[in-house]
Protein: RNA helicase
Organism: Canis lupus dingo
Amino acid sequence: WKADPEAHTPPPLQEPSGPSPPSQAQQKESVQAVRRSLPVFPFREELLAAIADHQVLIIEGETGSGKTTQIPQYLFEEGYTKKGMKIACTQPRRVAAMSVAARVAREMGVKLGNEVGYSIRFEDCTSERTVLRYMTDGMLLREFLSEPDLASYSVVMVDEAHERTLHTDILFGLIKDVARFRPELKVLVASATLDTARFSTFFDDAPVFRIPGRRFPVDIFYTKAPEADYLEACVVSVLQIHVTQPPGDILVFLTGQEEIEAACEMLQDRCRRLGSKIRELLVLPIYANLPSDMQARIFQPTPPGARKVVVATNIAETSLTIEGIIYVLDPGFCKQKSYNPRTGMESLTVTPLSLWGRFETQEASANQRAGRAGRVAAGKCFRLYTAWAYQHELEETTVPEIQRTSLGNVVLLLKSLGIHDLMHFDFLDPPPYETLLLALEQLYALGALNHLGELTTSGRKMAELPVDPMLSKMILASEKYSCSEEILTVAAMLSVNNSIFYRPKDKVVHADNARVNFFLPGGDHLVLLNVYTQWAESGYSSQWCYENFVQFRSMRRARDVREQLEGLLERVEVGLSSCQGDYIRVRKAITAGYFYHTARLTRSGYRTVKQQQTVFIHPNSSLFEEQPRWLLYHELVLTTKEFMRQVLEIESSWLLEVAPHYYKAKELEDPHSKKMPKKIEGEASRTQHQLLFLLYVI
Ligand code: ADP
Ligand code: MG
């Protein structure tokens, strides 16, 4: 490690009140004492007065100062929920909504789901009694569908506003509008210490309330040379910190579930081998799909003598605060959605810092990560990239999600809310013009809008389903092909995407065999259907999952999602029916939704049908070896190449059947019908992809 003496986070705004991590005694202090110790507490009265005086208030405060957990409680105590009125607090991430609601319920001594609850997609933990509602920003957006003036809410707090998610940005426009004709509605925009002036300007110069934070200095270390394999580097670094550094917990930032699980497994494996040579290391993951009991474990105090390492997605950057973190490990990678408005192609990207900077992050994010080390005492942040990369490759400005994602979903929602003139919608930062046009065009192709850009009956139904327009369309189409049972399963399995199969390092061969045993001709969607069907036949057994290397948790979630979607079928006038094994019907229904995502095999590999973009089948796909001529994909993931994930073989004639307005027979002709290359990729590059995906790093 090379220390960079200049690279400190900003100096503490207030004098540190004691540099040691919380002791046993402190941890046992009553809930109220903990509440009083938070930086926001001394400002309670002042804050409530400011809220009383102003309709819109921007609240700025360091992460961990108590904005999310305390402010809604203050409002509750102040009587903002009298006469059955509710307080909404939005979170960009589902995990944060769940975890924070659980925390607040505990602080208030109520059962989660009673006075305090959360509402996230496919999971509603609220009741008639719930007055403090933590919810994802997407869920509040959907509230506008049933209650366009949010009449039952007295306060709306848009939290983590600095994240600038698509849904948060759309909320800004809608809430600003509602606030105009509901003068009694209070609007709070809470943010980490970024961007607050912009929010103020947007809300007609609303005042900014600043909560001074506490921060201890953080020493920053960089690697001397770029790391080739950052996952391995992370694991080694964690162990190094564990062995050489004084007490204090470790926080590691990785990009997603697969990576986090791989890292945790590697860590546990090495600790096991080191046995009693090292002190106990508790390895705890945290990511969006982790069940809540597992999530809660990251907050439990570390037993004396042991050390905790929390392996997290960037949720731990600002949404969650874990006490006791002294060391932060930042590999400088991130999973990002990126969008090309020229081609309308969206992909998920895991890229190193140098490329990553192009899409979003910035120094701000790296500094947020570092800042997590200095909450309770002086900390250390180890960056798995070079000081040069930090200085030269990070961009300083954030590109809000609205400018790098497809807008089909929100355009459909806004149209359902009766907002037709999207070009003049009050955006904090407007999306690119082409992206809006493409969204309209796509919704037109899906039959959700007519040629005047008005919502059709089918579009109204699509908006009812809390899924992407293409997925909604697929579900609606299952009526025509009489296969809604199967399509619901496919839809549910797609929404727990990529976390179905389990591949423990010591049983790779068994796990791979188990996976291949589920393969069915036709492609990955049918494989997912097959897994679910067999699981259902086993009586939804966890033992069955264990034996087949399938993740029980993911399956349970798929079952929940499926049930919820099934409950909505009636509203969208789709009857329950089964294809009785005629999978062509299932495949056609999927094609009816995903005809936008098609590719054909050419002499030079796969090209998307419309945009002629080069794409590749993901090495995990059941069709990787087969290389069918025509296919559709669920999503694109960009690493070194554009990989299609969840691939289904189709026939070109189906495209004319399901989307005659979109495809012309001519463009579906096959000029070279024979002599297709059997395989495009050699074995060597396949191994390389797998390495790059970092799924199976030994
Ligand atoms: P902010 O929103 O300003 O970042 P929070 O209200 O989230 O701050 O956090 C305030 C305090 O509550 C922090 O010290 C944090 O550790 C604690 N906290 C938040 N959520 C939980 C939880 N689920 N379990 C335990 N402690 C929590
Ligand atoms: Mg917060």
